[in-house]
Design a protein that fits this description.
Elements lengths: L16 E4 L1 H9 L3 E3 L3 E2 L10 E5 L5 E7 L5 E8 L7 H16 L8 E6 L8 E6 L2 E6 L5 H5 L16 H13 L7 E6 L4 H6 L7 E3 L6 E6 L2 E6 L13 H9 L5 E5 L5 H8 L4 E6 L2 H13 L4 H5 L1 E6 L2 H5 L7 E6 L11 H18 E11 L6 H14 L4 E7 L16 E7 L2
Parallel strand pairs: 1-4, 9-10, 14-15, 14-17, 15-16, 17-18
Antiparallel strand pairs: 1-3, 2-6, 4-5, 5-6, 7-8, 8-9, 10-11, 12-13, 18-20, 19-20
Length: 434
Amino acid sequence: MASPSSNSNPASIPRLRVRVSPVAETLIRSGHPWVYSGSVRDPNRAGQVGEIAVVYDRQDRFLAFGLYDPESPIQLRILHHGKPIQIDEAFWRLRLDTAFAKRVDSFDHNTNGFRLVSGESDGWPGLVIDRYGDTLVLKLYSASWLGSLTANPTSLGKIPSLPHLRLIPLILACASQSLGIAEANLRLVLRLSRNIQDDAAHLRLQDGQNLAGTDVSESVIFREHGLRFESDVVRGQKTGFFLDQRENRRQVGEWAANADVLNAFSFSGGFSLYAARGGARTVTDLDISPHALDAARRNFALNQEVPGVQAARHAQVQAEAFAWLESSNQRDYSLVILDPPSLAKRESEREGAIRAYERLAFAGLQRTRPGGILLCASCSAHVSEEEFFNAVRRAIARKGGKAQELQRALHAVDHPATFPEARYLKAMYVRVET
C-alpha cells in the first residue's frame, strides 16, 4: 500500500477527483454503492488505496464521495452521494451509532449473536461487524479499510482524506455505549477476506488477529433465541457462524414437533438444534466435513439441559450431500432442510448453479414423506430470487406437482440488502402432499 514519502508536503497533494460514466452517474444517484473500474474517468492524479475520492458529474457538480481502490474491479465504493458533507470522525461515529441502533432493540438477552454492521447496506462498503456475546468480529472485504487499522494521530493527513479515523477505538466506544458492555470487557477480532490478506500482511495484520481485549480462545459461546452456540471467530467460515439464517432456524423449530428431521449441509448443526428443541423425534446431520459434524456435536452438548435437545435422537452422516440424497428414493423424513454453501461464487457459475438447485430440490422432495415439509435455501448472490424459486418449482413439477408452497423468506433484520448484488439469501418452504 503505497504512500507519499515523509518529505511530501500534504498541502501540495491535491484531493483526488474523478468523474464516472453516464450510466455510473445514474446508478450513484439511485443509491447503488459500487462503481467498477471501467466506469471511472479522468482522475486528476494517481490515487492511493483507501483515499476518499470526490466524484463529479458531467456538469462538474459534486456527485459523491467514495473509497478508492485502483487495484480492485470495484474501484469506487460510495460512502455518500447528494450534497457535499464533511467526512470526519463525527461522520463515522454517526454511521456506527445508526447501524447499531437498528439492531439493539430487535434482540433481547436470549440473543446476543447478531450482525451490527452490514457493509454497503449500512453505509460501510466492504466492512461488516458481527457480535458474539462480548466478542466483536470486524471483517474487511476491501483493502480500502486497511489504513484505518494502522493509523496513528501523526499519520493523519499524509494522504488527503484517507479514512485514518482510528477505527478500532471508535468501534469499541460506540459498541460499548450501544450494547451496555464496558469497553474493557469487549474483545475485537479481525477477519480478512482472502483477496486482501497479502495487502494486510505488509501492514503486519493477519486474518484472525486479536485487535482489542483478552485473546483467550479461538471459539466463543453466544446465545440465539435461548440456545447456546459455539463460534470459531478466529478460523471459522465468514465471521465464525452463519448468523443470517437465524429466523429460518427459528421457523424450522416451530414446525419440528414429532418430526424426523434431515439437515443436509448441516455445518455446525444450527437447524438441527432448533428442530430438537422444537420436539423432533430424530435429527440427522448430513455433511461431508468431519470438522463440521464435530462442531454440531459440541453444540448439542452445550444444550443438553434443554428437554427437547436431550430427548431427540441425534444421528450424523458424513457424506457428499448430493450423492447421498440421490442414492435412494426412500422417503425417510418428515422435515428436510437443504441449505448448501454458495453454488455460484461468480457470474460464470450461475447457470450451473440454477440447475444444481433444481437437482437438489428434486432429491429433497424424494426424501420427504407425504405431509412433510421441505426447506430449500440459497446463499448464492449470482442467482436471483426468482431464478432460485423457479428452480424449486421446476423440481416440484418434475415430481408431478404434488407439493404446496407454504412461504418464502429473505434477509433478516440485521442483514439488510439495499441493492441488487446484496440480495443473496432466499428460502422456500414447501409441503409435500403425496
